[in-house]
Amino acid sequence: MKKVKVGIVGLGELGSVHANNLRFKIPNAELIAICGVPAEKEKLEKLKAEWDIPYCFYDFAEMIKLPELEAVVISSSTAAHHEHALAAIQAGKHVFIEKPTGLNEQECMEIEQAAAASDKIFTVGFMRRHDPSYAEAKRRIDAGEIGTPILFRGYSLDPEWVAEYLAKRAAKNGCWFIDMTVHDYDLARWFLGSEAETVYALGGAYAYPVFAETNDVDNGYALMKFKNGACAFYYSGRTAAHGSHVETEIVGTKGMIRICDEPRRDRIKAYTKDGIVEKCLNLYLERWGEAYYLEMQHFIDAVEQGTQLEITAHDGTMATKMGMLTQESYVSGELKKF
Ligand SMILES: NC(=O)c1ccc[n+]([C@@H]2O[C@H](COP(=O)([O-])OP(=O)(O)OC[C@H]3O[C@@H](n4cnc5c(N)ncnc54)[C@H](O)[C@@H]3O)[C@@H](O)[C@H]2O)c1
């Protein structure tokens, strides 16, 4: 079997999952190169030896010079996406990039224009679209099961025990209305089949005042109207006491679909002195493991077969633009128009 030769930059929390999938779970991929920062030398050299990876780099520009390298996975911090994406496209590589594509609309637009001028594949890690439940919901909505979609409701809540960790990495990954809520903007556009028109956002740094220093939130809410008249409500938080909670609802004129309204870890209910207890998912990595695998398999298949994927650089730009305007509305207290 011919294997697509892939390199990955950024082997942090999520990049390690992508690297593991590429190395062990995707039969038509060959992970030939990894790239990080010099401070990670010990970790990366160990990985290179244990996983038998031919190359390890500490400079992305050097990695993409490898002539045999066909595709690049970018899972570095968001602040590095613009530089890495433009360099990979210019080097003629196929690109999978983590969300958000860039820290602001300008960065995303430049990436989008470069991707449009390339004949290679460019896709963004909006993995929720690859999750089997979301993909099935989309098929059923497109088949008319709930009539015309008129409302999207997205809850994306991280557990409170990662809030301090998130605060430390916020400067490199953007505010919460971009870093987290981009997933929901992308889903809202996908399910509602329209583009955003206006947004009004509220929220605050209620439990972690450190977020207020950068006008960021630990709990944020936004109402958005779309050009086709449909609406969306987003609630993105960092202080869920029960665990990692992503819940989506699409209301139509003839019914509604809910995905994962109770983020249970398993199917166990314990009847104890504490009452009837069901454990919640602990971290996002538990919820999305299958979706991370599927999105990467789809990317490698697309490279092998030379077919473009549904999720494009433009989707990345639109989601970041929605995040920027939501943040502007939150800071100014005003309704914002797209
Ligand atoms: N799709 C999702 O559900 C999801 C979930 C988490 C993170 N993400 C995205 O993935 C990206 C990484 O997030 P993370 O949580 O893994 O962060 P992380 O901080 O754990 O990892 C980032 C890695 O990138 C490396 N890096 C940064 N700049 C670099 C450079 N110039 N050259 C080489 N390596 C560099 C860092 O050393 C680190 O190893 C972010 O863009 C984030 O938004 C997406």
- Order of helical and strand elements: EHEHEHEHEHEHEHHHEEEEEEEHHE
CATH topology of the largest domain: Dihydrodipicolinate Reductase, domain 2
Q: Uncertain regions: pLDDT < 50 for 5+ in a row?
A: none
- Shape by Cα distribution: globular
Order of strands, widest sheet: 12-11-7-10-9-8-15
Report the average pLDDT across residues: 97
Radius of gyration: 20 Å
Percentage of residues in helical conformation: 25-40%
Please give the CATH architecture of the largest domain.
2-Layer Sandwich
Biggest sheet: strands, sense, closure?
Answer: 7 strands, mixed
Strand content: 25-35%
Quickly give the structural class.
Answer: alpha/beta
- Number of H- or I-type helical stretches: 11
Number of strand elements: 15
Distance between the termini: 48 Å
Say which molecules are bound, naming each kind only once.
nicotinamide-adenine-dinucleotide
CATH class identity of the largest domain: Alpha Beta
CATH superfamily membership of the largest domain:
Dihydrodipicolinate Reductase, domain 2
Number of structural domains: 2
Structural features, described:
- This protein has 338 residues and is an alpha/beta fold.
- The protein folds into two domains: 4-126 and 291-311, NAD(P)-binding Rossmann-like Domain (Rossmann fold), CATH 3.40.50.720; 129-287 and 319-337, Dihydrodipicolinate Reductase, domain 2 (2-Layer Sandwich).
- 38% of the residues lie in helices and 25% in strands.
- The chain has eleven helices and 15 strands.
- It has helices spanning 13-25, 41-51, 60-63, 81-90, 105-116, 132-142, 163-173, 176-179, 182-192, 284-305, 313-332, and strands spanning 4-9, 29-35, 55-57, 71-74, 94-97, 122-124, 149-159, 196-204, 219-226, 231-240, 245-252, 255-259, 270-272, 275-277, 336-337.
- It has a seven-stranded mixed beta sheet. A six-stranded parallel beta sheet has the order 3-2-1-4-5-6, with helices on both faces. It has a two-stranded antiparallel sheet with strand order 13-14.
- Helix 5 (105-116) links the parallel strand 5 and strand 6.
- Helix 1 (13-25) crosses helix 10 (284-305) and helix 5 packs antiparallel against helix 11 (313-332).
- The longest helix is centred in the last third of the chain and has 22 residues, at 284-305.
- The chain is globular, with a radius of gyration of 20 Å.
- The mean pLDDT is 97.
